Amino acid sequence: MEIWINPACSKCRTAIGLLDAEGADYTVRRYLEDVPSEAEIRAVLERLGLEPWDITRTQEAVAKELGLKEWARDASARDRWITALAEHPRLIQRPIITADDGTALVARTDEAVQEALARGCEQVVIDGVRARSGTNE
Questions:
Q1: pLDDT at 116
Q2: What is the rounded CA–CA span in Å between residue 28 and residue 43?
């Protein structure tokens, strides 16, 4: 299991706390420091079953600077959105947990973390940092 996190994010810290309380074996990726490539973002989107605009934090200052709210949300614009997420990882919604069963979840609620645990999580990303289980980063 891997979780993509931002250590400054309270929802990410809560997710880590729940994983630790369950004794889960996971890796932390601090995605602001260990920025996912476009290929990694595509893979996570496939696992999530979502589009890039579905995991974009449109209220971030950089989103406003880029004018993301006006961007098309269709197949023709998909690559543009993915590039923006790779170039500006702060735009990526967090935390994201990838499960051993090949799926992934945006784990912003306790229920989503529990669902990830039930699936046998493989990867969780919290603002771009990778860590081992129990590191509480």
A1: 87
A2: 17
Tens digits of residue pLDDT in 112-128: 999 888 886 444 444 44
- Active site includes 9? yes
Residue 71 CB burial class (10 angstroms; 0-12, 13-18, ≥19): middle
Strands (E), the chain: 2-4, 27-31, 96-99, 104-106, 121-125, 128-129
Choosing from 8, 9, 11, 65, the catalytic residue is 9
Instruction: With a cut of 50, say whether residue 87 has pLDDT above it.
Output: yes
Cβ neighbours, 10 Å, residue 3: 34
Using alpha carbons, list the distances in angstroms from residue 107 to 2, 31, 83: 12, 15, 23
Express each pLDDT in 38-68 by its tens digit. Answer: 999 999 999 999 999 999 999 999 999 999 9
CB 14 within 8 A of CB 107: no
